[in-house]
Write a structure and sequence with these properties.
Chain B: This is Oligopeptide ABC transporter, periplasmic oligopeptide-binding protein OppA. The complex is a heterodimer of chains A (311) and B (546). Chain A is mainly α and 311 residues long. Chain A has helices at 2-29, 43-52, 59-71, 86-121, 126-140, 143-157, 169-199, 202-210, 214-226, 228-242, 246-251, 258-266, 270-298. Chain B has 546 residues and is an alpha+beta fold. Classes of the chains: A mainly alpha (311), B alpha+beta (546). Chains A and B meet through helix 2, helix 4, helix 6 and helix 12 of A and helix 1, helix 7, helix 13 and strand 16 of B.
Chain lengths: 311, 546
């Protein structure tokens, strides 16, 4: 077990290094720099700025300096927001994105599994068709359209919820719903297909033959086993969702981390680009790792051993 | 059995819908009330959207319009642009100018910082020298290059002590300029020239990074709260020298980076203002806002133009450039694409500075003259037909409106002149880099004035390289007129010199002006005295609800 963990952590570290290196060089290859603007800076001021931020150093010096700083969890100052460090930006934005993400995952998981199970239990009946129509719509409608639609219906027409911003619980409902739609639909489809497969297994027939009630069979025997693909989807999904969605955060004016992924690249805010990428990668790698552990818990047949990796 | 289940489902659905409807009714009333609040007589809170987090709340570091929108209301410079768009004394009580126009002596008004400290001449000296000190990395330090030795000190070629700003005593500030600068009192209203409480700043170098006890200012409002990337809350400054004029108690400046959401919030009563200059209105909404007569439009000092790379074939030929510029159908571009009441531009300096530029130097969409210039140009190049010209690439940064304008111009050039063109778009930073390095043929650019003087729109073409010229164009006569205008003390003569320079510029056509910018916005009807300057920026000092 310890050997397995050790190996996993080593691979995680390696992936992280590759991600950091690739991001670092891709970022520097992009034309422009953090001080690019339509009003060009006098060359002396720009040179002075470059010297201050160490951008005048050769690339390998900058690269190794950066690695050193990441090792101490110091992502440096932002170029675009003077006086704020990338650590500040992450620690202010992440809790917001996390809260929104958890709410969305909760909605997606609860409703998605419910719809999927219903669809499988009533296979080829109206319940099945209506949940799957819902799922197809949910997957095909992009989240920004869903967001605008929700805003229009609930905030403008019905006037029950606020249009945007991040304040009270009421403010969180629409963005969480908009964020949840696609994963919800996806989970519903995953659950349905894996439920159908599980339900045709011999042990379900055995359970039925034993005279167990339908409810017990569904919950104890079928759903538990049908959850496997959902759990593996949940890992990367939660990493993606809790670090925030650019589109949803922009439309609802939410001060989360998601908007920084895109705006930092537009601004060539080097330190923020690196900071959020590294942060996101760590979360992603960790969540995949956790999912692998959960596998073992749900399905005892999967053993966590070094020679037989869970994933 | 089956039927019963169906009935249950229906009952559930019914229950849910009643619940939703009930919610709708109840809270809907609340929403209306929020909107109606605006109509109450004593509303003292203003809610606006500034779209994004500002770069910095330090006057010496700020370099963007968002920071400017806040600083203009929290700080008081030596002068402030008043309701008539003229600089008036603010933190300065009296200004004396020496005969040669190079030495300004300001007497500081008796007034206090928000923490009760008196505002002194030293605070101005400290702030300006701080911004010019290269170790503080101010990107806008060049706004202070008008001061004697300002540029040299910023480039490390002179000592900071030698910069031409000196506090003679607590209340007297003596400013020495490099050249007589006729618009210097416009500049002292600009945010890079705002004072900083030197006592606080020396004690706590991080004073400007967050709202709090150490964030002190001397303007109509003080910053009460700053939630990064979320909102800034200003409240009335009790220590402000002119506090009786200030009617609002509180200003919420939200940061919602989506123009559609902003407009929805305005319509629902969650904002009192939507659109320029804090943010923008969605182009799609312009028509309906115009139709219900809620849209406000005001021309501002800014121009949207197409720069020609005057070293690229065939744009090195002035007649080809003129043909291309004359033929553009600006009227249909502003009416059908930009839709914000923009003014077709046939000149470089906006009409708010040169009134007669509303008409401009040539006729819009002048196909006949354009064809004549084309003929002439082709002859000079030894070509018979426009189709023999090298293909011209029109570049723009990725954006729907820029794209539509480029397509319209491409269409006109092809249809009226038979010139072959292709379009190329890039992401903003990539685009800017290309333009600044001269790697383009024709490219769009917007230019906004920093202060209310025509020099803003001409100066960038003074030198061929460096600065923001991008066109590789230069003209010794043009340059001489600009340099001489800096020394001319008579406003009428100076204005004429700048007009002569503009005439040369339009005659040589290194850029094709397209339109002059406007601010377009919607606001609460009972919101009064929000003062918008000719530059398009807004002051909330006098704002109030009726």
């Amino acid at each position: 077990m310890i050997k397995y963990f050790g190996k996993r952590f080593f691979y995680m570290f390696l992936s992280l290094l590759v991600i950091i290196t690739a991001t670092f060089f891709l970022m520097r290859l992009a034309p422009g720099n953090p001080f690019t603007s339509e009003k060009q800076l006098p060359p002396e001021i720009e040179a002075n700025l470059n010297a201050h931020y160490g951008l005048d150093q050769p690339w390998y010096v900058q690269y190794f300096d950066y690695l050193k700083r990441i090792a101490t969890w110091d992502f440096g100052p932002s170029f675009k927001y003077k006086g704020q460090t990338v650590n500040d930006i992450i620690s202010e934005g992440f809790p917001v994105s996390l809260a929104l993400g958890i709410e969305a995952i909760f909605i997606a998981l609860a409703l998605g599994v419910l719809l999927g199970v219903l669809a499988a239990l009533y296979h080829n009946k109206w319940q099945d068709y209506s949940s799957m129509i819902f799922a197809v719509v949910g997957i095909s409608v992009p989240s920004f359209i869903m967001a605008a639609l929700l805003q229009y219906i609930f905030a403008i027409k019905l006037q029950v919820l606020p249009v945007a911003r991040w304040d009270s619980f009421a403010h969180t409902i629409l963005p969480a719903l908009a964020l949840a739609t696609t994963p919800l639909a996806f989970i519903a489809r995953l659950t349905r297909s894996s439920m159908l497969e599980v339900l045709s297994n011999d042990y379900i027939k055995t359970a039925k033959a034993k005279g167990l009630s339908r409810g017990v069979i569904t919950v104890k025997h079928a759903v538990r086993n049908a959850m496997m693909p959902v759990v593996s989807y949940l890992g990367p999904l939660s990493a993606g969702i809790i670090t925030g969605s650019f589109v949803i955060e922009k439309i609802f004016g939410i001060p989360g981390l998601g908007s920084h992924f895109v705006t930092s690249i537009q601004n060539r805010d080097y330190t923020v680009i690196m900071g959020v990428t590294v942060f996101y990668s760590i979360l992603l790698l960790l969540s995949i790792f956790i999912v692998d552990i959960i596998y073992g818990l749900i399905d005892p047949r999967i053993k966590l051993r070094a020679h037989k990796k869970g994933a | 059995m089956k039927k019963r289940k169906y009935a249950l489902f229906l009952a559930l659905l019914l229950a849910l819908s009643t619940f939703l409807a009930a919610c709708g009714g109840g809270n809907g009333g609340g929403g209306d009330k929020a909107g109606g609040n605006g109509k109450e007589d004593n509303k003292k809170e203003l809610k606006v959207n500034i779209k994004t987090e500002p770069f910095s709340m330090h006057p010496g570091l700020a370099n963007d319009s968002t920071s400017g929108s806040v600083l203009r209301n929290t700080f008081e410079g030596l002068t402030r642009i008043n309701k008539d768009d003229k600089p008036e004394n603010a933190a300065a009580e009296k200004v004396d100018v020496s005969e040669d126009g190079k030495v300004y002596t300001f007497t500081i008004r008796d007034h206090k910082w928000s923490n009760g400290d008196p505002v002194t001449a030293q605070d101005f000296e400290y702030a300006w020298k701080w911004a010019l000190d290269p170790k503080n990395q101010s990107q806008y330090a060049y706004q202070l290059y008008y001061l004697k030795n300002g540029q040299a000190a910023n480039e490390g070629k002179a000592k900071i002590e030698d910069v031409g700003v000196k506090a003679k005593d607590e209340k007297t500030l003596e400013v020495t300029l490099e050249n007589p600068t006729p618009y210097f009192l416009e500049l002292t209203a600009f945010y890079t020239y705002l004072p900083v409480n030197s006592k606080v700043a020396q004690k706590n170098p991080n004073w400007y990074k967050n709202a709090g006890e150490d964030y002190v200012s001397n303007g109509p409002y003080v910053m009460d709260q700053w939630e990064h990337s979320d909102k800034i809350v200003l409240k009335k400054n009790d220590q402000y020298w002119d506090k009786d004029t200030v009617k609002l108690d509180k200003i919420d400046m939200l940061m919602i980076n989506d123009v559609n959401t902003e407009l929805s919030m305005f319509k629902k009563g969650e904002l009192d203002w939507a659109g320029s200059p804090f943010s923008a209105l969605p182009t799609d909404a312009m028509e309906s806002l115009k139709a219900d007569k809620t849209l406000n439009i005001k021309p501002i000092a800014g121009v949207y133009w197409y720069k020609f790379n005057t070293e690229a074939e065939p744009l090195n030929n002035v007649n080809i450039r003129k043909a291309l510029a004359y033929v553009i159908d600006r009227k249909s571009i502003v009416e059908k694409i930009s839709k914000g009441g923009q003014i077709p531009a046939m000149a470089a300096v906006p009409p708010s500075m040169f009134e007669e530029n509303e008409k401009g130097y040539f006729k819009d969409h002048d196909v006949k003259t354009a064809k004549e210039y084309l003929e002439k140009g082709l002859k000079e190049l030894g070509l018979k037909d426009a189709s023999e010209l090298p293909e011209i690439t029109i570049s723009y940064n990725t954006d729907e409106a820029h794209q539509k304008i480029a397509q319209a111009i491409q269409d006109t050039w092809k249809k009226e002149l038979g010139v072959k063109t292709k379009l190329g778009n890039e992401e903003w930073a990539v685009y800017i880099e290309k333009l600044h390095s001269g790697d383009y043929m024709v490219g769009r650019m917007g230019w906004l004035g920093d202060f209310n003087d025509p020099i803003n729109f001409l100066e960038l073409f003074r030198e061929k390289k460096g600065g923001n010229n991008d066109t590789n164009w230069e003209n010794p006569e043009f340059k001489k007129l600009l340099v001489d205008s800096q020394k001319e003390m008579d406003p009428a003569k100076r204005s004429q010199m700048l007009k002569d320079a503009e005439k040369i510029f339009v005659d040589e056509m290194p850029v094709a002006p397209i339109y002059f910018y406007t601010n377009s916005w919607v606001q609460r009807d009972n919101l009064k005295d929000v003062v918008m300057s000719g530059l398009g920026d807004v002051q909330l000092k006098w704002a109030h609800f009726e």
